[in-house]
Amino acid sequence: MRVTFPLMAIGLEVAMIVLFWLFVQYEADQTISQQLNTTRPTKMDSFVQLYPLFQDVHVMIFVGFGFLMTFLKKYGFSSVGINLLIAALGLQWGTLVLGLLHARGEKFHIGIKEMISADFSTATVLISFGAVLGKTSPIQMLIMTILEIAVFAANEFLVAEIFVASDTGASMTIHAFGAYFGLAVAGVLYRSGLREGHHNEESVYHSDIFAMIGTLFLWIFWPSFNSAIAEPGDHQYRAIVNTYFSLAACVLTAYAVSSLVTYRGKLEMVHIQNATLAGGVAVGTCADMDIQPYIAMIIGSIAGLVSVLGYKCLTPFCATTLRIHDTCGVHNLHGLPGVVGGLASIVAIAVGVSTIAMQAAALGSSIGTALVGGLVTGQQK
Amino acid sequence: MRVTFPLMAIGLEVAMIVLFWLFVQYEADQTISQQLNTTRPTKMDSFVQLYPLFQDVHVMIFVGFGFLMTFLKKYGFSSVGINLLIAALGLQWGTLVLGLLHARGEKFHIGIKEMISADFSTATVLISFGAVLGKTSPIQMLIMTILEIAVFAANEFLVAEIFVASDTGASMTIHAFGAYFGLAVAGVLYRSGLREGHHNEESVYHSDIFAMIGTLFLWIFWPSFNSAIAEPGDHQYRAIVNTYFSLAACVLTAYAVSSLVTYRGKLEMVHIQNATLAGGVAVGTCADMDIQPYIAMIIGSIAGLVSVLGYKCLTPFCATTLRIHDTCGVHNLHGLPGVVGGLASIVAIAVGVSTIAMQAAALGSSIGTALVGGLVTGQQK
Amino acid sequence: MRVTFPLMAIGLEVAMIVLFWLFVQYEADQTISQQLNTTRPTKMDSFVQLYPLFQDVHVMIFVGFGFLMTFLKKYGFSSVGINLLIAALGLQWGTLVLGLLHARGEKFHIGIKEMISADFSTATVLISFGAVLGKTSPIQMLIMTILEIAVFAANEFLVAEIFVASDTGASMTIHAFGAYFGLAVAGVLYRSGLREGHHNEESVYHSDIFAMIGTLFLWIFWPSFNSAIAEPGDHQYRAIVNTYFSLAACVLTAYAVSSLVTYRGKLEMVHIQNATLAGGVAVGTCADMDIQPYIAMIIGSIAGLVSVLGYKCLTPFCATTLRIHDTCGVHNLHGLPGVVGGLASIVAIAVGVSTIAMQAAALGSSIGTALVGGLVTGQQK
Fold first, then answer.
1. Chains touching chain B, criterion 3+ CB pairs below 8 Å
2. Confidence band for B113, pLDDT divided at 50, 70 and 90
3. In C, which residues are within 8 Å of A111 by CB distance?
4. Transmembrane residues, as ranges (chains A, B, C) (predicted)?
5. CA dist list (Å): B67 to A135, B133, B269, B294
6. pLDDT class for C179, splitting at 50, 70, 90?
7. Angle, vertex CA C60, rays to CA C108 and CA B238, nearest 5
8. Which residues of chain B have a CB within 8 Å of the CB of C89?
9. Nearest to B126 by CA among B52, B200, B208, B67
């Protein structure tokens, strides 16, 4: 760490600056915005509409993900500090990789929409970080950020441009992808000492309340996450409404199931911090479809149920039998609900005709590239 | 609790899903937004304008109210956890009750405006929750949510459609209503042990700072709360400006009075956490009126004064003599300032002519229905 | 304190109300917004565009600055409480002083833009507060608020109207000004006991996480701070993009340098809480210029480097040799990066021709008036 970390961080930043110098430009026709006497939608309109959504997503990435992981009494500062480091590197690298892929290696322009996509790409690494928290050094996280975002961009390109599948709220390409990538890395990093759990792996009263800051800001702004890159108008409006009600339904189911499966009916804090968000993940893929609010609520309820059961049954099973130790339980918050989201979109499309195969391919590719990418990344110790 | 709570929560969620299936639809004419070559205000315009205000209110409901109640050292997690549960149920139920009332039992559409109103309706229950915190179980809170929002919707219908009274920032229909409803419930739940106070009824250094997270987010976004459902243009603009300055004035008075009435002039934390917000409550009813900023500042100053004196004198009096134990002092934050707001609107209208009687009726009805509803609800143990 | 503080606070609030009554009016032509069948940009457009930016800045002032200073274990509540008091007084007084200066003593109108400027003017005092935290009473802070905002308004008038210099993100007029004003006051208040540090001048684990709430909300919303008063269109867009990437680059450099200069390569919390923000300060002055993103990233990297080195070397030197004790290290977060920002703007303008002298005069005047103002204010004990 003594010199490796600073040298690597500075080296990466210098590389970013050079790549930005070579490839990144301001949006050229921004000046159109001045001519407001035109009536067609201008850059200015799109700025006014997108910037608040961008800021909501920005809060989710830095405060939401950062604080959600503070529940462990000894890793509060690491969570929120390394989260900031990963996201700051990730958004620069994500801007580059996504931009170069879509511009086929030419110079490209950045606007608010590209900033939202850059923030999104960091989310995958932050989700994976939840699985390996406490098991990795900052150096390993820098490497993982670079590798995972490259794989993410490749899979996202495959899903959007080759399969032409729909994934507005990114249940598959961000949540399932991030979770399975992280689990694959965690599997590689497994040491037998993790089986019995670690005494640092505990929360205290205050650390659980800090984590609720993360939970609540994620919960509140999730409608913005699922609608930020949706087509303006009907699609965006539906993404907001569906996510709003899916999350509300998810809270009731998650509380109910948590109380059912816990000793003496007490509410388990880790369920409340995480499973209440599963409705946002699961409704993502079909967020902008014409599914009606009550279907969104059913999807949210299923996600809440699946997520709590995952914490209760699957996490211990993974740790002991599969030898995968998932520190924050990202499989239950992002993995399973992401799969639920992918399956829901297949059903939604099946009912309304159309390209089931591509939707299934998108789900498969998101999980497949994540697992392979994660296994390879895990070797880079 | 063992099975009652999960069964009730799941039962309520199933009921919500069925009712949404029967009654709730997307906004039909959202597609107008596509035709941006029209120059009249479209749904799209209203979306761009309302969505940021909605998100501000959303932060107030979940982070603001949730963290404001974390000041008690032993109830931090309950506050923020049960707050989320109540609000998630309340926003579904509020959508239904308000929608059905205004559509006279027909199918109805939901847009951002309806989502703001649904969030508002949950605020009444969250205010009442502050009065009964530590005295009720989650089961009782689910019942209270269903009952209180129904009574709230009835009173709101009375005020807006029958009295045609003005209550933009909802000083009367939300704040006074929520406070007196909660006090009525607290009165019914009174046990003599509460007279001397409870050793759990204490704050510690960290819990007081957590509560400040709630205070600050409420304080910051209060202009959005008071302007979210105001008429766009002048009215909305005035609601923002008046609330901004009323709150600022309230802070100075609350600090001054707190220092005056406290031993050796120290600032009392509970005053700073709560009384600084009274200016937002009190200016609510006349927020969008043409009262001039300095009048808003006078209203805010009076609210800060009344609120601190309420904590100092009225809360102990209520607990010992009236046998009403108000855990978070909601009477001082929402009750009294709500009444100040109602009275201020009567004065404002008296000075500028017009319907004083209806405004007074609105205040009376908000307090009356709250007390009766709360007393009845309190019996449902 | 017993009576002086309450009397002074109430007296100031009464004075504010009288001055608002005499001078402040609603925006007169707000009604234009009703006529949405006009196609030119209306007040309504500007409201829809500015209000979300205003709320972002508002969060920075009250949550960002308030929580950033909670890192000291014994001053958490003072930080966040006195921060609220200062800001509430400051925004009223800032509205008046700025309004009267620009209207040359006539009645003036207030809109969202004036509210943003009022929030900005409080930022100077909050920055200075960071230098004197733990050394001043609430009474002294009330006096400092009144004096500092008056001097700030005078300097801002000089910079904008006489020098006609550019300072969109206010690196010089707010950050450098606030820092040097605070340092001058701290120099006057110096007592020899401060040389060895104080046992209250320590953080604990939880207080450091509280401070991260401040850091993150400042970091997230800084693009709004630097763009809120920029010209709409290209300028505003560039201010957002440049700030976004400058901050990201700053994080990597700050982490790297922190790890280099700290014992055994550990990351120092105070660096992460503060130096990661220096990129936002430093890019402020040229935020809206056509400098290209990679230059913004270079500015951010330099700021991160300078800020960490400041904490490591300059703060101890100031405390022992210069006899200036800077509690929160505002010189490293706002002072030095503000100077970097001023110098960067001189270089940027030099490269592209134009008024270097005026830009240099703006930097000089911001530091000069701050130091003189602070020295005079420090005497008012």
1. A, C
2. very high
3. 237, 241
4. 6-24, 50-72, 84-103, 115-133, 139-160, 172-189, 209-229, 241-261, 294-314, 335-354, 360-378
5. 32, 13, 15, 31
6. very high
7. 35
8. 248, 251-252
9. B67
Per the CB < 8 Å rule, is A216 touching B16? no
Q: Which runs of consecutive H residues, i.e. helices, occur in chain B?
A: 4-23, 43-59, 65-68, 76-102, 112-132, 138-157, 177-188, 205-227, 234-261, 269-274, 278-282, 293-309, 315-317, 330, 336-351, 356-379
pLDDT in tens, C214-228: 999 999 999 999 999
φ and ψ at A24, to 5 degrees? -105, 135
Nearest C-alpha of chain C: how many angstroms from A62?
7
Q: Taking a contact as any Cβ pair under 8 Å apart, which residues of chain B between 126 and 155 contact chain A? A: 138
How many C-beta atoms lie closer than 10 Å to residue B192's C-beta?
7
Angle between the B112-132 and B138-157 helix axes, to the nearest 10 degrees? 130
C 39-58 near A (Cβ less than 8 A): 39-41, 45, 48-49, 52-53, 56
- Cβ–Cβ of B62/A232 closer than 8 Å? no
**Residue type at B3 in one-letter notation:** V
pLDDT tens readout for residues C243-259? 999 999 999 999 999 99
d(CA C81, CA C90): 14
Widest Cα–Cα separation across chain C: 68
For residue A362, give how far its alpha carbon lies from the nearest alpha carbon of chain C (Å).
31
Half-sphere exposure of residue A247, counting CA atoms within 13 Å on the CB side? Answer: 31
pLDDT in tens, B70-110: 888 778 888 899 999 999 999 999 999 999 998 888 999 99
User: For residues C304 and C249, what is the distance between their CA atoms, to the nearest angstrom?
Assistant: 8
Q: How far apart are CA C303 and CA C307, in angstroms?
A: 6
Sign of CA dihedral B280, B284, B287, B292: negative
Tens of pLDDT, residues B264-292: 878 888 999 999 999 999 999 999 998 99
CB B80 within 8 A of CB B244: no
Banded model confidence at residue C362, pLDDT cuts 50, 70, 90: confident
Task: Say if the Cβ atoms of B220 and C59 lie within 8 Å.
Answer: yes
pLDDT in tens, A228-269: 999 888 899 999 999 999 999 999 999 999 999 988 878 888
User: What residues form DSSP beta bridges with B26?
Assistant: B110
Closest CA to A81 of C69, C209, C277: C209
Range name among A111-125, B32-46, B238-252, C169-183 with the lowest pLDDT average? B32-46
Count of helices and strands (H, E) across chain C? 16, 2
Task: Map tokens 């503060």 to a residue.
Answer: C274
CB contact under 8 A, C6 and B220: no
Instruction: Classify residue A204 by burial, with Cβ atoms within 10 Å: 0-12, 13-18, 19+.
Output: middle
Q: How far is C41 from chain A (nearest CA, A)?
A: 7
Using a CB-CB cut-off of 8 Å, the residues of chain B touching A228 are: none
Q: Nearest to residue B146, comparing CAs of B99, B93, B92, B182?
A: B93
Distance from CA of C228 to the nearest CA of A (A): 12
Q: What ipTM was predicted for this assembly? A: 0.91
C-alpha B315: how far from its chain's center? 19
A213 touching C (Cβ < 8 Å): yes
Q: What is the pLDDT of residue B381?
A: 56
- Interface contact B70-A209, CB threshold 8 A: yes
Chain A residue with CA closest to B18: the answer is A294
DSSP track, A337-352: HHHHHHHHHHHHHHHT
Position with higher pLDDT, B323 vs B248? B248
Residue among A40, A234, A265 minimizing CB distance to B37: A40
Give one DSSP letter per residue of C335-378, joined into a string. IHHHHHHHHHHHHHHHHT-S-HHHHHHHHHHHHHHHHHHHHHHH
